[in-house]
């Protein structure tokens, strides 16, 4: 997690840092800080809490200087207070560092440093890096950073400056860093949106890269000092794409961006004339005997939809794993396994390590990824980009529906290539996929949104929620519960509807709202039977039905209609209703939906 920004050039660095940190606060908002080099000294200002607290501290007394580094923190080691906030400086203030990640052997290193006379101010693992660099420094900052990093074990994106040098030295292992290349100026950040206001020319650093930025440009080398060539990539996003665009929150903006995001995911990949899907994937679809889908959180639920679609359409056995457990359970992997990792950021550490585990045993690897240039994309055999655009809200919306759409295309591609899906069936599903942007736009019609808002506010004071779904929409129920938990802090559970009678039914009483996805499907009749079991125990049923289903409306205390869609694409359309239910519940409770407590957008620590 955590957000990093660095700048060297002719501008006042504070303006660049604060602007960049505002774009990265979704990565952590336990504290924020900046360090500005004015040519004679390095001034450090930092404050616990959100970025606005740091801005208030700076007040009318900005720090002057054209070189600086900044950080917004998601706490791992040490309480979220002023002292533990970054940047961290050595006792004499000559070396200043910021760090994203975890130094796993920091206690051993810290004890050794203390034994050699070093005094520590914070409880963080990060401060160890400043002292290691200080101990190794002999006039060359680059060499000192290299020597310090040789002693550490763990994950890091580290940025360092020294009072005697007009340069920034940075390095990364696991934790992401991207450079922005301007005219006579250089930028550094954890993620692209922080830099889009200044440049769209980016250099994505690889695992094990070190870079030196100065007024002349940049040099990239590995941790042994060997020069490395990195391509400057032009990013198509503009700065406005990463702003709220007139919406109250990033999350709401991104919910409404889904028709366009889905168009971007699908465009150019669907061929009506043949019923074929072109994913520009070089893997051999006939070589896999089994598929493992590996992901975390929202991406995991997208993977569960993918499991259903691939098994139904391509008839390949699929299992879905929580990435944080995958490499610790000694998975059965062979060269006939296709491991599919799913991640919006492409930086999720649990998923990245699971990818490496699968590769170690010979699996072919494919990524369903949003962020270009991310760590995963450089280690995968092939990548299916979802092209959802920048997603700032911590609770994923457009990335989720784009991931599900990508799995639909992948299932179609596999099914047609393996001969398990006829041309006629492929054409039918391709037509359904092409309808998705329009259907989601319909799902966001004002009268539908107003109805969901009404229902959300009615049940906003509930202490618990239950979500139920069946078949391809059981993962939609899981995703609905997750969204509600993430941003409203209401306890919510989700089950495949048929499982309710095997335990969860004991929870049902007149105080429990039960959201049931009962849209058109071959299991609709069974789902309605489960609804009747809820009503028999006085549960309050919020029923999500396909347009025109007036017969089943009588089984719900509150009914929300969604556009009628083919069963195989319905999880995309239904997810929008789940997002809006969570959103309006959270806003009714006065929650900050873009920055839910304890969460960060990109999870880069285990």
From TrEMBL:
Pfam families noted in UniProt: GATase_6 (PF13522), SIS (PF01380)
Nuclease is among the record's keywords: no
Keywords assigned: Aminotransferase, Cytoplasm, Glutamine amidotransferase, Repeat, Transferase
Coiled-coil regions listed in the entry: none
Spans traversing the lipid bilayer: none
EC number: 2.6.1.16
Domain Glutamine amidotransferase type-2: 2-216
InterPro entries per record: GATase_2_dom, GFAT, GFAT_N, GlmS/AgaS_SIS, GlmS/FrlB_SIS, Ntn_hydrolases_N, SIS_dom, SIS_dom_sf
Chief place of localization: cytoplasm
Compartment(s): Cytoplasm
Function: Catalyzes the first step in hexosamine metabolism, converting fructose-6P into glucosamine-6P using glutamine as a nitrogen source.
Record's subunit section: Homodimer.
Protein name (Swiss-Prot/TrEMBL): Glutamine--fructose-6-phosphate aminotransferase [isomerizing]
Organism: Deinococcus depolymerans
The organism's taxonomic lineage, starting at the top: Bacteria, Thermotogati, Deinococcota, Deinococci, Deinococcales
